[in-house]
Amino acid sequence: MSQVPSAVPIAAPTGAAARPLARQSYEALRVFVRNPSAVAGVLLLAAILAVTIFGPMLMNADPFEIAGAPMSPPGEDALLGTDYLGRDVLTGMVYGGRATLLVGVVAAVLSMAIGLTVGALAGYYGGWVDETLMRITEFFQVLPTLLFAMVLVTLFSPSLATIAVAIGVVSWTGTARLARGEFLRLKRREYVLAERVIGAGDARIIWRVILPNALAPLIVSATLAIGMAILFEAGLSFLGLGDPNIMSWGLMIGSNRPYILTAWWAVTLPGAAIFVTVLAVSLIGDGLNDALNPNSRGRS
């Protein structure tokens, strides 16, 4: 520590550090767009978002409205058929995508916020802080997540907000462990030590210095968390714990499951929509993993 000048150049102006970061971002984007699976995932997700965002504006219908005879097969009167109550399946899928995707994104953001905060503090401070936070993480990790989410939703009544919060509260442990590992790896790097030498506070070092360098695996984790949250919401709705006043793909599957043999379209088509959406998110996550992995960039 006596040779302080050797550490000073590392604490270079942020403009100098921005050039390598910009080049890394360009290289990551180049690798991503050359990945056919990742591009296919982006196109799939873009199409799904376009339908769920602009579809309701064009249709201007009520997904709970009785549109025809119950359990009518796909045909001219109802393009994708009707469910057990006579509600139009196509209308339900277009409107239901909004709720499903909204819950998935909000739950993933909440999960990442909790996990990142816990993991960053544990990895940066170490000692008793790390020990305490990791014991809390292990407690949540051994809980049966679906059962715990069901209890939370039941206690606070089913709604989109409570479902998103319940999913976020039970699914942050993996992110916390990932963030902790990244902070443990990066906190002894020279540029972090240089920030300490020039008097930077802990908050600046955690959120402005270490976090930007730990984002690559966390971005991939956040992308995959969206797909997991969508499946989680579908599972809760399938069990009858969805918001009965808001149409979602999971609610369509859950309400029509007793009639799957006589009206398969009312269950299979929303299930296919969930499958395609999660597949698209997974493809994007895999593409980001390859693009943000330095080894992958070196091979491309």
Q: How do you describe this structure in short?
A:
With 300 residues, the chain is mainly α. Helix content is 73%, strand content 0%. InterPro entries: BP-dependent_transpt_permease (IPR050366), MetI-like (IPR000515), MetI-like_sf (IPR035906), OppC_N (IPR025966).
Helix and strand topology:
Blueprint: H1 14-33, H2 36-59, H3 89-125, H4 127-142, H5 145-155, H6 160-170, H7 173-186, H8 190-197, H9 202-238, H10 249-256, H11 265-292, H12 294-299
Describe this structure in words.
The protein is mostly helical and 300 residues long. The chain has a single domain, classed as Orthogonal Bundle (MetI-like fold). The protein is built from 12 helices and no strands. It has helices at 14-33, 36-59, 89-125, 127-142, 145-155, 160-170, 173-186, 190-197, 202-238, 249-256, 265-292, 294-299. Helix 2 crosses helix 11, helix 3 runs parallel beside helix 6 and helix 9 (202-238) packs parallel to helix 10 (249-256).
Key descriptive features of the protein:
300 residues; mainly alpha; MetI-like fold; 12 helices; elongated; disordered N terminus; transmembrane helix
Number of helices: 12
Give the name of the CATH architecture.
Orthogonal Bundle
Secondary-structure element string: HHHHHHHHHHHH
Tertiary shape:
elongated
Strand content: under 5%
Alpha-carbon Rg, integer:
23 Å
Family: Belongs to the binding-protein-dependent transport system permease family.
Transmembrane segments: 38-58, 101-126, 146-179, 214-239, 259-284
GO cellular component, one term: plasma membrane
Organism: Achromobacter agilis
